[in-house]
Automatic annotation (TrEMBL):
Record: active site: 142, 170
Reactions mediated catalytically: L-aspartate 4-semialdehyde + pyruvate = (2S,4S)-4-hydroxy-2,3,4,5-tetrahydrodipicolinate + H2O + H(+)
Organism: Streptomyces diacarni
Keywords from the named record: Amino-acid biosynthesis, Cytoplasm, Diaminopimelate biosynthesis, Lyase, Lysine biosynthesis, Schiff base
GO MF term list: 4-hydroxy-tetrahydrodipicolinate synthase activity
Record's protein name: 4-hydroxy-tetrahydrodipicolinate synthase
Function recorded in the entry: Catalyzes the condensation of (S)-aspartate-beta-semialdehyde [(S)-ASA] and pyruvate to 4-hydroxy-tetrahydrodipicolinate (HTPA).
InterPro entries: Aldolase_TIM (IPR013785), DapA (IPR005263), DapA-like (IPR002220), Schiff_base-form_aldolases_AS (IPR020625), Schiff_base-form_aldolases_CS (IPR020624)
Residue numbers marked as site, Part of a proton relay during catalysis: 53, 116
Family matches, as HAMAP family: DapA (MF_00418)
Pathway assignment: Amino-acid biosynthesis; L-lysine biosynthesis via DAP pathway; (S)-tetrahydrodipicolinate from L-aspartate: step 3/4
Family listed: Belongs to the DapA family.
Length: 299
C-alpha cells in the first residue's frame, strides 16, 4: 500500500518527476530505476512520477512504461506514491496506458494536456474525464501549455474537479494570477510543476511540488516547504534564493538532459538519452557544474 493520502495532499507534498534510466546500449534499466527510486525516497520524496516528461515518455514503449511502473512500485511502493504518466494526445491510447498502469500497481495517474492537436476546452474536458472513468486511480492533471499548445482554462478545471477521481493539478502554466483563481475555485490539490515558482505557488495555495531538481536537492525542497508550512517566510525565501542557481542551471536546456548529466556525475543510475534528446556538450556540462556549485551541489 502507498502512504496514506488525504484530500489536501493526495500524493504527498514533495514528488520528483523521475528520469528513466537506460543501459549503455539504450535499453530500459529496471535495476537502475529501482536503485534511483530508492535513493530519491531516502532523500525525502513522498512520491515519484514515472513516465512523465522527464521520464522521456515519448520515446518509451507501452510495455516499457508498464515494466517501469511495476519495478518502481516493487522498490518503493510501500513508502512512496508512484504516479504513472498516462496522458497522450490520443484519448483511446491514454486509456490503454491508464489501465496498464493500474494493472502494474500505480497509485495514481498523471494526465497531460493533449499536445499538438490543440483541442477546444470541451475536448479537454471529455479527454480527461474519459481517462478518469477508465480506472479506479486518482488523477493529477498536468497543465503545461508551453509544451501542449493549449491551457486548461480555470472554468474547465472547475468542471473537471467535480469528478471524484480528478483530485490534483500539476501547474506548469507559469501564470500566478490564473493559478490563484483556479486554486480558490476548483478545490484541486495544487502542485507546482515549475521549480522556479515553487515558493510563489505555495504562497497562493499550492500544497507541494512535482519537481525536476528534486533529483539533486530534495532535502532543500523539503526544508523550503517545511519553513513555509511553519510560517517562517524569511527562511523559505532564503532557501528559495539559495536554490536559484539550481533552478536556472537545470533548465538551460531540457531538464532531463541536465538531470541525467548531474546524476551520472553523482554516481546514480541514469544512462544515455534516447533521440531526439542528446547529451550536454562539454561547455554545457561545465556551465551546469558551475551553476550547481553556486548552490552547494558539487558534481
Amino acid at each position: 500500500m502507498a502512504p496514506t493520502s488525504t484530500p489536501q495532499t493526495p500524493f504527498g507534498r514533495v514528488l520528483t518527476a523521475m528520469v528513466t534510466p537506460f543501459t549503455a546500449d539504450g535499453a530500459l534499466d529496471l535495476d537502475g530505476a529501482q536503485q534511483l527510486a530508492a535513493h530519491l525516497v531516502d532523500a525525502g520524496n513522498d512520491g515519484l512520477v514515472v513516465s512523465g516528461t522527464t521520464g522521456e515518455s515519448p520515446t518509451t514503449s507501452d510495455a516499457e512504461k508498464a515494466q517501469l511502473v511495476k519495478a518502481v512500485v516493487e522498490a518503493v511502493g510501500d513508502r512512496a506514491h508512484v504516479v504513472a504518466g498516462a496522458g497522450t494526445n490520443d484519448t483511446a491510447h491514454s486509456i490503454e496506458l491508464a489501465t496498464a498502469a493500474e494493472k502494474a500497481g500505480a497509485h495514481g495517474l498523471l494526465a497531460v494536456t493533449p499536445y499538438y492537436s490543440k483541442p477546444p476546452q470541451e475536448g479537454l474536458y471529455r479527454h480527461f474525464t474519459a481517462i478518469a472513468d477508465a480506472t479506479e486511480l486518482p488523477v493529477m492533471l498536468y497543465d503545461i501549455p508551453g509544451r501542449s499548445g493549449v491551457p486548461i482554462n480555470t472554468e474547465t478545471l472547475v468542471r473537471l474537479a467535480e469528478h471524484p477521481r480528478i483530485v490534483a493539478n500539476k501547474d506548469a502554466k507559469g501564470d500566478l494570477g490564473r493559478a490563484s483563481w483556479a486554486i480558490a475555485t476548483s478545490g484541486l490539490a495544487w502542485y507546482s510543476g515549475d521549480d522556479m515558482l515553487n515558493l510563489p505557488l505555495l504562497s497562493v495555495g499550492a500544497i507541494g511540488f512535482v519537481s525536476v531538481v528534486g533529483h539533486v536537492v530534495t532535502p532543500e525542497l523539503r526544508a523550503l516547504l517545511d519553513a513555509h508550512l511553519s510560517g517562517d517566510v524569511a527562511k523559505a525565501t532564503e532557501i528559495h534564493q539559495k536554490l536559484l542557481p539550481v533552478f536556472t542551471g537545470m533548465f538551460r536546456t531540457q531538464g532531463v538532459i541536465t538531470t541525467k548529466a548531474a546524476l551520472a556525475r553523482l554516481g546514480h543510475p541514469a544512462g544515455p538519452l534516447r533521440l531526439p534528446l542528446v547529451e550536454l556538450a562539454p561547455e554545457e556540462l561545465d556551465q551546469l557544474t558551475h551553476d550547481l556549485a553556486h548552490s552547494g551541489v558539487h558534481l
